[in-house]
Design brief:
Strand content: under 5%
CATH class: Mainly Alpha
Largest sheet: none
Helix content: over 70%
Structural class: mainly alpha
Number of domains: 1
Radius of gyration: 14 Å
Shape: elongated
Length: 114
């Protein structure tokens, strides 16, 4: 991923990023903190979810905390219920409550059944 031009438009960056496997993007994302927001914005939440689920737990939490509530809710909306459950398991109880409050009722019910 060394040949990616991050100083280009988000559309061009997205076109470069989608040529890579989500695990490659996740590895780069973890080691290049200054590029995280740009990667997220370029991919958009629908594609970024595939990267998010592959991140180390602490990076997931760290990045999730940088998002505003609307962005957090949007990301959660696109994650599978099991992925949300795995993410919740990495959080402290107080953080879990905040994240659960962002979920639609249907998803909340599905999580409690897991």
């Amino acid at each position: 991923m060394d040949n990616i031009q991050f100083e280009t438009s988000l559309v061009k960056l997205k076109n470069q990023l989608i040529k890579y496997h989500p695990s490659d993007i996740a590895s780069f994302f973890e080691t290049h903190e200054s590029m995280r927001t740009k990667i997220y914005e370029a991919l958009g939440v629908k594609l970024f979810k595939n990267v998010f689920i592959l991140l180390d737990d602490h990076v997931q939490v760290q990045f999730f905390d940088t998002l505003n509530k609307t962005q957090q809710a949007s990301l959660l909306k696109f994650l599978d219920t099991e992925d949300i459950k795995d993410f919740l398991d990495t959080l402290k109880m107080s953080q879990q409550i905040l994240v659960i409050s962002l979920l639609p009722e249907k998803t909340k019910n599905e999580i409690t059944q897991l």
